[in-house]
């Protein structure tokens, strides 16, 4: 019998019994905040939300849900984009929000370690690190509302992956609760701990399907003494890639960010968010946003890169931020691109990764294929330094995204098939969620999928953890 048929609704009677075992006000009726996904395509089920204050509360919640076979959907900041935090189809689950477990437990500047609970907001972690002259480098557009437990559960990326890695690379250890309610008190401030299977890396990126992360020890870094930020106009993505190579030759690991920006995205920003300051009078077709973090001379290094790039024909124009306000303007432009995309309304969006050398050819081929279906507008942008592109398809001017609902799946399949041909991934940093389960089944290695199902069956035999996410139920 499929697990979806054995799971029970989080009924009023069940929640009343659970509430009696928890501190007052630990369960509440849910509301739209916990049921809507950011892109407005899915509406989840759920009548109650649990708001634990401690790892022991989480243990009580999971133990009761496991015994009663009630599904649990962990909820962080609600900013996920693949329907991982809302459950539209399974029996109404209990939603488990970590928002009250938001403490920063301790900071150890000498060790470059911060210990925080899963509900801590990413921006608050960054601020706490800065207060100790340290850097927590995970940075993404939703950092003002995203919570670190969700960042770890989805192995979030962002703009600094090129230098510092994904969320997984920033995590030293975890505290977590397993589906049967057992608590793993795994927090240690160690860089080396070879004592068996790596449960930490099993839970990081599992999207809440194997347990609930309740706290983490995370890596901090010294703040670069000299930070330089520039926007440089390039002829095409191939020129951008060659410019990245020049930058690496000059400053090595001193490149914090290397973002590819397409003129279509700037056009959308100009149309939908006109208050954002644009760097050039005429929007170029392609630009790169570059940030160096060095001990000294970041601006000088950017000037040298511009000169070299200009001499060899890679760079046509550029601006180097002269102060923190200009630097903020450059990054505000980058952050405004997804906002403007949302206001325009994408037919379909794709979070993909490719081998670096394949990026220029992929962009050209994908555009040809997609525009052969309809005169779509394409905004391709993203983290070029780590091969992560956001290849988003928009309706022609004057049309609505709903006009193309009947071919949306066909267009996405065309993009993902091409990604597969180039030995890339259909999910770079957003995860699988429920949105991309079919893609995982189609493109995933059979042996790996079999191992994933075996792990799920052993750790969560009743299938209560985020049912339907990552693996089909």
What is the class of the largest domain in the CATH system? Answer: Alpha Beta
Total number of helical segments?
15
The number of domains: 4
Number of strands: 18
Strand order of the largest sheet: 5-6-10-8-9
Any key phrases for this structure?
Alpha-Beta Plaits, 473 residues, 4 domains, Uridine Diphospho-n-acetylenolpyruvylglucosamine Reductase, domain 3, 18 strands, 20% strand, five-stranded antiparallel sheet, globular, alpha+beta, single chain, Uridine Diphospho-n-acetylenolpyruvylglucosamine Reductase, domain 2, four-stranded mixed sheet, 33% helix
Descriptive notes:
The chain is of the alpha+beta class and 473 residues long. The chain has four domains: 3-99 and 455-459, Uridine Diphospho-n-acetylenolpyruvylglucosamine Reductase, domain 2 (2-Layer Sandwich), CATH 3.30.43; 104-222, Uridine Diphospho-n-acetylenolpyruvylglucosamine Reductase, domain 3 (2-Layer Sandwich), CATH 3.30.465.10; 224-337, 2-Layer Sandwich (Alpha-Beta Plaits); 345-430, Alpha-Beta Plaits. Helix 8 (237-251) crosses helix 10 (298-311). The protein has a five-stranded antiparallel β-sheet with strand order 5-6-10-8-9. A four-stranded mixed β-sheet has the order 1-2-4-3, with helices on one face. The protein has a four-stranded antiparallel β-sheet with strand order 13-14-12-15, with helices on both faces. The mean pLDDT is 95. 33% of the residues lie in helices and 20% in strands. It has helices at 3-6, 12-19, 55-68, 122-130, 148-153, 161-164, 199-203, 237-251, 263-272, 298-311, 324-344, 359-371, 408-421, 437-443, 446-459, and strands spanning 27-29, 48-50, 72-75, 94-97, 104-108, 113-117, 134-135, 171-177, 183-185, 212-219, 221-222, 226-234, 255-262, 286-294, 315-320, 351-353, 377-383, 388-394. It is globular, with a radius of gyration of 23 Å. The chain is built from 15 helices and 18 strands.
């Amino acid at each position: 019998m499929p697990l979806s048929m054995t799971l029970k609704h989080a009924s009023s009677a069940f929640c009343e019994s659970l509430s009696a075992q928890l501190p007052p006000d630990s369960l509440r009726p849910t509301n739209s905040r916990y049921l809507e996904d950011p892109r407005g395509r899915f509406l989840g089920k759920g009548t109650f939300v649990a708001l634990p204050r401690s790892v022991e509360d989480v243990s009580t919640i999971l133990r009761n849900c496991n015994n009663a076979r009630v599904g649990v959907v962990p909820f962080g900041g609600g900013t996920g984009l693949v329907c991982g935090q809302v459950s539209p189809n399974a029996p109404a689950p209990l939603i488990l929000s970590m928002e009250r477990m938001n403490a920063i437990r301790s900071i150890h500047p000498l060790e470059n370690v911060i210990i925080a609970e899963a509900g801590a907001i990413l921006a608050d972690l960054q601020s706490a690190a800065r207060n100790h002259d340290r850097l927590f480098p995970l940075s993404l557009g939703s950092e003002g509302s995203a919570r670190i437990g969700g960042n770890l559960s989805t192995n979030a990326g962002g703009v600094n992956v090129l230098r510092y890695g994904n969320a997984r690379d920033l995590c030293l250890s975890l505290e977590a609760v397993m589906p049967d309610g057992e608590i793993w008190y795994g927090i240690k401030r160690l860089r080396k701990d070879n004592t068996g299977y790596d449960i930490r890396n099993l839970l990081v990126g599992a999207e809440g399907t194997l347990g609930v992360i309740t706290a983490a020890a995370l890596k901090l870094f010294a703040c670069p003494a000299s930070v330089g930020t520039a926007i440089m106009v390039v002829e095409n993505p191939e020129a951008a890639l060659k410019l990245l190579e020049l930058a690496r030759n000059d400053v090595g690991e001193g490149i914090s960010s290397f973002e590819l920006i397409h003129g279509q995205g700037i056009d959308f920003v100009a149309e939908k968010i006109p208050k954002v300051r644009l760097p050039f009078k005429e929007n170029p077709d392609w630009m790169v946003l570059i940030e160096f973090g060095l001990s000294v001379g970041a601006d000088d290094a950017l000037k040298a890169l511009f000169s070299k790039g200009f001499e060899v024909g890679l760079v046509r124009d550029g601006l180097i931020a002269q102060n923190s306000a200009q630097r903020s303007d450059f990054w505000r432009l980058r952050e405004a691109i997804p906002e403007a995309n949302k206001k325009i309304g994408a037919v379909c969006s794709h979070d993909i990764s490719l081998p670096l050398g394949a990026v220029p050819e992929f962009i050209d081929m994908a555009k040809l294929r997609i525009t052969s279906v309809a005169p779509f507008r394409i905004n391709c942008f993203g983290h070029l330094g780590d091969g992560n592109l956001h290849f988003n398809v928009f309706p022609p001017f004057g049309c609505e995204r709903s006009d193309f609902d009947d071919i949306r799946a066909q267009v996405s399949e065309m993009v993902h098939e091409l990604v597969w041909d180039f030995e890339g991934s259909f999910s770079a940093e957003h995860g699988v969620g429920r949105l991309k389960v079919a893609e995982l089944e189609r493109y995933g290695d059979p042996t790996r999928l079999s191992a994933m199902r075996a792990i799920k069956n052993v750790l969560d035999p009743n299938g209560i953890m985020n049912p339907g996410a990552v693996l089909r139920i």
